[in-house]
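step: validate -> pass
step: tokenize input -> pass
step: predict -> running
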Amino acid sequence: MIKRVCDIVLALVLLVLSFIPLLLVGVVIKLTSPGPVLHCSKRVGKKSQIFIMLKFRSMYVDTPQVATHLLQDPQLALTSIGKFLRTTSLDELPQLWNILKGDMSFVGPRPALFNQDDLIEQRRLRGIDMLLPGLTGWAQVNGRDEISLPDKIRFDEEYKNKQSFTFDIWIMWLTVLKVIGRANVSH
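step: predict -> pass
step: emit ->
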């Protein structure tokens, strides 16, 4: 309950503080590539329920709905500002709305795409699917795009077993450092 209240308060504060950057990013996306400003991605949340996760669109509209590393050449799918949005994590800002709605938390396992069957099944088998997915997570600060599926599952399970307010604060602090340093973003 405390985590949910903290999520709501922090999301509201960040939405107010980031209103102008959100607006500017939206305008730049609209001016630099055809299509919607937001990408609505079907994701797997708590109890394996599908929800729509919002992101700023960093790829062209016709890009297949698969994990980025499965694209033949992810760089070709990125819009002119897509790489910048991804390396700065600005593409993730609309997920503050998902946090307010209760689909996500600030910290938890990153939500799997609806078609990442191997990740979804491994999380289900280990009870990780009972956690609210997060804007950031223990796997993200330990490798983000650079870690294998078994390592991602191991970090998600470790998070499940060590959950606490202080651990969440530590993960959020590490996330800020990783975003500032643009660490472990391969596409």
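step: describe -> The beta strands are 38-44, 50-56, 105-107, 112-113, 134-136.
step: cleanup -> pass
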